Amino acid sequence: MSFNDDEPLTPAGRLFTQPATHQIINCALGLDHPIEYDAVRTVVSNSLMIKHPRFTSLLVKDNNDHEYWRKIDLDIDQHIIMHNDPVVQDYDTDESAINEYLADLSVSSPLCTDKPLWEIHILSVHKCIVVRIHHALGDGISLMSLMLTLCKKLDKPDEVPTIEPLVSSSTARCGILLKAVRLLKIIWYTLVYMIHFILRITVVDDGQTMVKGGQGVELWPRKLATAKFGIDDMKIVKKSVKNATINDVLFGVISLGLSKYLDNRSPGSLKEGLQITGVALVNLRPSPGLQDMKELMKKNTGLGWGNKFGIMLLPVYYHKNDSDPLQYLKRAKAMIDRKKLSLEAFLSYQTGYFIMKFLGAKYASLINYRVVCNTSFTVSNIVGPREEFTIAGIPVTYIRVTSTSLPQAITMHMVSYAGKADMQILVAKDLIPDPENLAKCFENALLEMKEATVQIREKSL
């Protein structure tokens, strides 16, 4: 067997093929009405997906266990799986059935390696399709951008959905002294947070709570629930704190929501100010937000296809009966602002790349696994399309993303779409048997923040 014409996996891609860090992204698209097999096949056949080399290549290994992509002739029918019957036997709503199906996929359903590493599952009864893609093929930004090439605008059926990249906040002009102070802050925060990062890999662990997982928990059965937010509500809350962002609001919601949930589960048993550490996935591309596929598929560009994200350790804190819900947002913003000044996300990516390249995938995977074992949750936020779109002429009602289970007891992925933001909350059900209550705590946290913001505005009038 010759490997001369095969393309080696990137170091980041190799990470996700290791047993301890094996990851599959599961993206559910809700539909206005059921879709037929032939319609999905036609859409895929005419899309950029099958023109991308990653989606038409097998993952193969040589005698030294080095992974390669091997181009093959694609058989689309191998990748589309039709479910004409309900995917679970007893269910109350389509949402609960789909979430149960996705929860099962997150633990016990790897992708077959005798074909390219992606599948599309059609859940006809539940008016949904599930796109399953191995993380070695690319990160969330790459895959979401590619998925949009399967779709068309709702109001302009001949056009693909418009991709509007986020505009990075620009730094105001400042004098030499302020620039020097900023540089010193960057150096200081980078040093402090990288020390924290190293300690988290080696000896520091979150204290034991009912939401803390650990080694081996990735193999435990899962449950999945959906927290639903209004983007307008998040924007209202965002304006209550100067220069706050949607991500600041999200972490404020997570902090308040977790405090509420922990209070309900074990009233009075936790120490005030208890740290609960999260792992946040950070896009490292020069242009934030979704990307144009033509740019992503170009080689030798900063936007290029693949896994281009770092991680940050973002702590939230347990507080009991805090009378002002906006304090959670203020604390989240202050912490995230310090993190943004550091190079933690960039250096985490570069360190992982270096270890993968020179020490091997086993060691890089071990380090990533240790970080996840020693923290309590993972969270990501992808800004999806702002306009409604269709697939095969059928309006898409929601986009929801989750992934393979991790050693943490909680994994959260939020995607916004057409004025809504749905956050999938995947939990180890032996530790968190009621993720619906956790989702409700997050939803109520945002509503309390919104109400507090409105009250402040009314008092100022």
From TrEMBL:
Q: In which pathway does it act?
A: Lipid metabolism; Glycerolipid metabolism; triacylglycerol biosynthesis
Q: How does it sit in the membrane?
A: Single-pass membrane protein
UniProt-recorded Gene Ontology molecular function terms: diacylglycerol O-acyltransferase activity; long-chain-alcohol O-fatty-acyltransferase activity
Tell me the ranges covered by the O-acyltransferase WSD1 C-terminal domain, including all copies: 305-450
Originating species: Artemisia annua (Sweet wormwood)
UniProt record similarity statement: In the N-terminal section; belongs to the long-chain O-acyltransferase family.
List residues of the O-acyltransferase WSD1-like N-terminal domain: 53-249
- InterPro entries per the record? CAT-like_dom_sf (IPR023213), O-acyltransferase_WSD1-like (IPR045034), O-acyltransferase_WSD1_C (IPR009721), O-acyltransferase_WSD1_N (IPR004255)
- Does Acyltransferase appear among the keywords? yes
Q: This protein is called what? A: O-acyltransferase, WSD1 domain-containing protein
Q: Can you list the GO cellular component terms from the UniProt entry? A: endoplasmic reticulum membrane; plasma membrane
**For this chain's UniProt record, which GO biological process terms are given?**
triglyceride biosynthetic process
| Entry-linked Gene3D superfamilies | Chloramphenicol acetyltransferase-like domain
Protein's UniProt keywords contain Transferase = yes
Q: Which reaction does it catalyse?
A: an acyl-CoA + a 1,2-diacyl-sn-glycerol = a triacyl-sn-glycerol + CoA; a long chain fatty alcohol + a fatty acyl-CoA = a long-chain alcohol wax ester + CoA
* Keywords of the record: Acyltransferase, Endoplasmic reticulum, Transferase
Q: Report the domain of life of the source organism.
A: Eukaryota
Instruction: From the Swiss-Prot or TrEMBL record, state where the protein is found.
Output: Cell membrane; Endoplasmic reticulum membrane
